Amino acid sequence: MQKRLDQGYAALERIADSSPDLLKSLLEGSPDTVSVSDARLPDLPLTYVNPSFTKTTGYSADEVLGRNCRFLQGEDTDRDDVAKIRQAIEARQPVDVVLLNYRKSGEPFINSLRMAPIFDKSGQLSAYLGIQRDITEERLQAERNIGQNRLEALGTASGALAHQLNNLLHPVTSLISLHLPDIEDPGIRKDLEMAHYSANQAADLSDNLLGLSRGSFQDSSDVTTLPAGLIRAVDLVRLMLPPTITIETSFRNISGELNVPINETLFAQVLINIITNASQATKHSGKIRIEVAEHDSSRVKISISDNGPGIPPSLREKVFSPFYSKSHSKNSSGLGLPVALQIINKVDGQIIVEDGLIQPNGDGFGCMFIIDIPNIT
After folding, report:
1. Which of 27, 44, 72, 148 is packed most tightly, with the most Cβ within 10 A?
2. What is the rounded CA–CA span in Å between residue 354 and residue 368?
3. Is CATH 3.90.79.10 what the domain over 140-374 is classified as, yes or no?
4. pLDDT (tens digit, 9 = 90+) per residue, 115-154?
5. How far apart are CA 342 and CA 144, in angstroms?
């Protein structure tokens, strides 16, 4: 890598010697951010940033020149990533790293950084060249693709299971229905009625899973019908969570079927991302309640509440920032909630965070995510 960089520097030197204006034009017009830090001064202060740097970070050149570029770091920047940069500087070696940085506004972005030392003609270290690229949208798209692929795979597997389950349940329900009218013993009759009810419940679950595998994952429709679409999605989510998580659903003030402008695959992905977050918050042993209400004829509100530790009001907007949870849970990508918000925002919806269910110890409230989304006719 260093050999290729040296060859590149040599080419830049030739351009600088023969045509300084051309080199300036290349740097000023680069879509990637370019920065130069002086290695001869204490703390490697910035001595040059190109226009892409100021556009990406929100800082003007006057605000950053003379400062070490660590001002782009924040509380959720991974310390291991920072250590890689520090070690490369100490070893005078190039380094490639992807880390979380922050714009002047406080908005986080995912920065793909390549940094390399520059040596003068006498072999002395003179500067460090940094080339950065904002890859936030690329990471979000990758997370969306992973979520959709996971749903498709689970839907296919669930469909196969549902088909086999239906084949087994059909004779059970049919035989009970056939012989139940002839049973005179009240105790036996009650037991058979309970068995019949349970078998029908299992059949309904099977039909929901089969509907997901046959419909939403191949259907290009951009509408999910409630409550049926939500019930199918929740049944799918239950397969992904430990049995220690209790999920309750409630539908109130609903005049009939509701149609939200989002296909079932994306709708299920939103629910999975939020419910998985709730499950992690309760340490996989709490209660989650999902309530659907028709706000008016044009809007639907879907609230997802848990009885976990809750989120302080000062942090409620921050949970939608990419990689926010990275420093708190190594099992989380930190992109689930940002992806959910992006999906909902694209259909003129919003997600609001409020207090949720009362905590088991009664000392406070968990968290509630409210999805406010259009109801189309």
Report:
1. 72
2. 5
3. no
4. 999 888 888 898 899 999 999 888 878 776 776 666 566 5
5. 10
pLDDT at residue 236, rounded to an integer: 74
CA proximity to 299, closest of 362, 349, 361: 349
Which phi and psi (to 5°) does residue 223 adopt? -130, 135
- 195 by Cβ neighbours in 10 Å (0-12 / 13-18 / 19+) ranks as middle
- pTM above 0.85? no
pLDDT for 63 equals 95
Q: Where are the domains of the chain?
A: 2-134, 140-374
Which helix (H) or strand (E) element contains residue 51?
Answer: helix 51-57
Instruction: Give me the phi and psi of 333, to 5 degrees please.
Output: -75, -20
* Dist. CA 115–CA 347, nearest whole Å: 40
* Distance in angstroms (rounded) separating the CA atoms of residues 159 and 111: 40
- Please write the tens of the pLDDT for every residue from 90-117: 999 999 999 999 999 988 899 999 999 9
Residues of the chain with pLDDT under 70: 1-26, 144, 147-163, 197-198, 201-202, 204-221, 322-335, 362-363
Q: Which secondary-structure segment (H or E) carries 44?
A: none
Q: How many CA within 13 A on the CB side of residue 278? A: 35
Tokens of 176: 């009970």
The CATH fold assigned to 2-134 is Beta-Lactamase (3.30.450)
